[in-house]
Amino acid sequence: MKARATCPLDCPDACSLLLTLEGGRLVRVEGDPAHPFTRGYACAKTYRYPERVKARLLYPLRRVGRKGEGRFERISWEEALDGIAERLKAILDAHGGEAVLPYHYAGTMGLVENQHPLAFFRAIGASELLETICSSAGSAAWEMTYGPRLAPDPEEIPENVRYLLLWGINSLSTNSHLTPFLKAARRRGAKVVHIDPYENLTSRFADEHLKLRPGTDAALAYALAHVLFREGLVDRAYLEEAATGVEAFQEEAEGWTPRRASALTGVPEEAIERLARELGEAKRVFLRVGYGMTRHPGGGNALRAVILLPALLGAWRHPGCGAMLSTSGAFPLNKRFLGGRHLLEGEHPHEGYFRPNPRVRRVNMNELASALTALDPPIRALFVFNSNPLVVAPNTGRVKEGLLREDLLTVVLEQVMTETARYADYLLPATLFYEHPDLYTSYGHYYLSWNEPLAEPEGKARPNTWVFRELARRLGLKEPTLYWEAEAVARSLLDVDHPYLEGISLERLKREGFAKLRLPKPFLPFAQGPVRFSPPPEVIPTEPLPDYPLILLTPPAHRFLNTTYGNVRELVEAEGGEPRLLIHPLDAEARGVTDGALVHIRSPWGQVVRKAKLTEAPVPGTVVLEGTWWEGWTPDGKGINHLTSERLTDLGGGSTFHSTPVEVEPLRLA
Ligand SMILES: Nc1nc2c(c(=O)[nH]1)N[C@H]1C(S)=C(S)[C@@H](COP(=O)(O)OP(=O)(O)OC[C@H]3O[C@@H](n4cnc5c(=O)[nH]c(N)nc54)[C@H](O)[C@@H]3O)O[C@H]1N2
Ligand SMILES: Nc1nc2c(c(=O)[nH]1)N[C@H]1C(S)=C(S)[C@@H](COP(=O)(O)OP(=O)(O)OC[C@H]3O[C@@H](n4cnc5c(=O)[nH]c(N)nc54)[C@H](O)[C@@H]3O)O[C@H]1N2
Ligand code: SF4
Ligand SMILES: [Mo]
After folding, report:
1. d(CA 468, CA 470)
2. 570 and 589 co-located in one domain
3. In this structure, what DSSP letter does residue 350 have?
């Protein structure tokens, strides 16, 4: 049987896939030629989805060994759910809801399986997890500047754009279905420029690559603005109509001469002058920004400075032009009851075992290490789903310390035996995207989609929402939205009167699989603004430390999606079999590091061992480790986040994964 389903992964492309199933098992994945953004191809990763789940979890398990040892016994769902409910009730009775923490992120982007489990936690007044590990600094910066997260329609790029600026994003790896639109614009004469601290696939695709020092983007943006103002290349009419706060911004930009910015950013003065003039002349500019530049202490301000550039040019007046961070703000869904958000409003009378607390304790997910080891009163029950925190969260050393706590009840819902799953007291098998229904939006295009289950769950796997419904029953919770099944959640989400959703019903999505939002054509989201230049963005450079003079970047690998696919041997081998530290020959020579040698990488928070690869790809002073590899593939069995810190961004409480000060030295064998 061959049928359509949306790729559930945390990727802007939200591809439509054609799946071939034999006896309920997935054997083949193809891209859907009928989907205008997918255009008939999947990515190097998802073609391998069948291999990814060959060793999937099929039965509920209970720990029999020590914490983290990974020894389990098979039990029934009744035993698992009764056992968890009993321990949970005891914790709730003695310590209240705030002793419970859900830890979840975007293993699946389906709104039902991603968000609706939270209804359970909100109904028991659990500590609320702030979803900050990825996009919150970017979102905060965007909202401050433009408001809703809208972007040009990528399908309008080819015919309209003259200049493509890819800034802090390795889009050929992380947004690969944008590439055909970039290529089509280039065929019509558009130039492609990439701005990134190290050379990667996207730099090699671009006509020009400007290498800047990490965390210095705001200075570069100001210098570009400086030249645009000086040369009279800004669109004054647009700014008068659409923008506020331009004067103070201009004053700030006047202080950032290309010479001054060059000294900080490492980008040659003449390259700054040239880029500014080219942008000013082209006007029809499409700027694709990623989250890369936001993962720094000053990341929010950096992104604000950069996304103001298309406004200076009046680019938003032209179809396909302006800036793209995310398209997610265009989906006008009614999220009030999704994941029981209304319970946080605290205005609903409640029956049942526990009452929601509108002033619940909030835990920033970047601070999991502290939450598990230093929070008072402590977290006593941790529920992990859609996430692999042992590997992806900062400061792994302390995260592990927390997971090792004998008094912590850890429940993990997973598809495969991740390194986090090994620390579970109860490990519950989750369904795959073609086994459960769900509604999908996107953050890279404007199609909404629905997955109908294509197969019965294999073994005893169950959707996340099923598990939390069962636990809610056992706790005697009465809140009705807890018991909504996927279709009820989807109907509530689509229950909105908005022109973009005109003609899009659940019935139609079930029939057709996907549907494009009814956007105005052309789509010019900020042609009349509002654009807020004030307060002028601050320049907050990422600083090394005296004993840690290099900055470590840890951007995504081409063939993994965060840690998903990190267990697929073919993909691991294609990524080189193990992670390698990219280090510039100048930095290597100064430390006696040779190509292929093992090195210690030390930060104030931990140390790991990696093989070094000498390459001129990174700007000197910056070292790069691509990919959040599973610990098992590394020389010392330690994941990259042993090095990173819980430090938060200036805006949005985001993660600072690309700002770690480190020192590198050859491994001295004892
Ligand atoms: N193949 C693949 N695709 C993915 C993912 C994956 O793991 N693999 N992850 C998915 C997810 S969860 C997300 S959030 C997105 C990733 O979204 P992004 O974070 O946008 O990831 P990248 O596209 O790699 O962009 C990061 C780039 O920013 C650069 N960078 C780091 N610091 C700075 C800086 O200070 N200034 C500038 N200008 N650049 C900087 C890095 O060198 C890197 O090239 O991709 C999604 N798609
Ligand atoms: N050093 C460093 N660390 C990083 C990053 C970085 O660039 N550098 N990137 C950060 C970013 S951008 C992000 S978004 C986070 C990502 O962090 P996570 O969201 O934790 O992403 P994954 O590592 O892909 O883990 C997702 C897990 O969810 C599981 N899963 C998938 N579908 C389901 C389901 O339906 N039910 C259940 N129960 N489980 C499911 C998968 O099997 C997988 O193990 O990592 C962050 N960590
Ligand atoms: S991971 Fe991204 S590019 Fe790959 S199939 Fe899924 S949505 Fe498409
Ligand atoms: Mo992410």
Report:
1. 5
2. yes
3. -
Is there an atom of ligand 2 within 6 Å of 641 CB?
Answer: yes
Last residue of a domain, one of 495, 516, 537: 516
Q: Note whether 450 and 501 are same-domain residues.
A: yes
Q: Cα 184 from chain centroid?
A: 27
Ligand 2 atom with least separation from CA of 644: 1
- Residue 628 is predicted with a pLDDT of 98
Evaluate whether 158 touches 392 at the Cβ level (below 8 Å). no
Give the residues surrounding ligand 1 with Cβ less than 6 Å away.
10-11, 134, 167-171, 173-174, 195-198, 200, 212, 214-215, 217, 290-293, 296, 553, 555-558, 560-562, 658
By mean pLDDT, which of 117-131, 317-331, 354-368, 607-621 is the weakest? 354-368
Residue numbers of the domain that contains 38: 2-52
pLDDT, tens digit (0-9, with 9 covering 90-100), for 84-115: 999 999 999 999 999 999 999 999 999 999 99
pLDDT higher than 60, residue 356: no
If asked whether residues 155 and 96 sit together in one domain, one would say: no
Q: Please check whether residue 536 lies inside any domain of the structure.
A: no
Domain count along the chain: 4
Q: For residues 253-281, give the mean pLDDT.
A: 98
345 shares a domain with 394:
yes
Q: How many angstroms separate the CA atoms of 149 and 340, rounded?
A: 23
Q: pTM for this structure?
A: 0.98
Interior/surface letters 607-626, b for 16+ CB within 10 angstroms, e for the rest = bbebbbbbbebbbbbbbbbb
Rounded to the nearest angstrom, the distance between the alpha carbon of 227 and the centre of ligand 3 is: 39
Question: What is the pLDDT confidence band of residue 352, given thresholds at 50, 70 and 90?
Answer: very low
Q: Which ligand is nearest to the CA of 326?
A: 1
Domain containing 259 — which CATH number?
A: 3.40.228.10
Query: Among the atoms of ligand 3, which is closest to the Cα of residue 8?
Result: 6
